[in-house]
Design brief:
about 180 residues; alpha/beta; eight-stranded mixed β-sheet; about 30% helix
């Protein structure tokens, strides 16, 4: 909710690069206060945004923001540190903004995300660049492309691309094998 977030992290550019369809089902994993969930909702007017978190207090906050912003296509979902509890095979895009590095059980969480993805569904990671020592974030909160790619291969996700348009973060795209069903 920082006022300087747009200037530092360019969330509007993140939204532009998601290549969304109006009918997409998006899972905002580790949604926290719902910052991205609320921004995503108008971009999928015929779809929905699942604001997923492991803290009920955060999801209660999202529910409040949802009412204030009149975004009825946002729903909240309480998960556990090992399971997102996403509906199986329904998610077109899972987005994780500065969340993956916080997981206590990353493999289990990613396996549950993959299970929730539709065939051809995508996962987008926005993480601070671990390769760049000038990024003013503690190393514990940074990740490298090599590290994320290796970990996603283990859960069966295919690397699609890295897009370098953010000042201090990676934008990495992975995909679940299979064809995306027509909507």
């Amino acid at each position: 909710e920082r006022r300087d977030r747009e200037g530092e992290e360019k969330p509007s550019l993140v939204l532009e690069h998601l290549d969304l369809k109006p009918t997409d089902v998006i899972a905002d994993i580790g949604a926290g206060s719902g910052y991205f969930s609320i921004l995503l909702a108008p971009l999928v007017p015929e779809g929905r945004v699942i604001a997923q978190d492991i803290q009920q207090e955060m999801l209660d906050f999202v529910e409040g923001r949802k009412k204030l912003s009149a975004t009825p296509n946002v729903e909240t979902l309480l998960g556990t540190p090992e399971d997102t509890r996403l509906p199986e095979g329904e998610v077109d895009l899972a987005i994780l903004v500065d969340a993956y590095h916080e997981f206590s059980h990353p493999r289990e969480m990613m396996e549950s995300i993959v299970k929730g993805l539709a065939p051809g569904g995508r996962v987008v990671f926005v993480e601070y660049r671990g390769e760049d020592p000038t990024v003013p974030i503690k190393p514990l909160h940074k990740m490298t492309v090599k590290q994320i790619s290796a970990e996603m291969a283990v859960v069966g996700l295919e690397f699609v691309e890295v897009r370098d348009f953010l000042p201090i973060q990676h934008f990495l795209v992975f995909r679940k094998p299979g064809n995306t069903p027509a909507k």
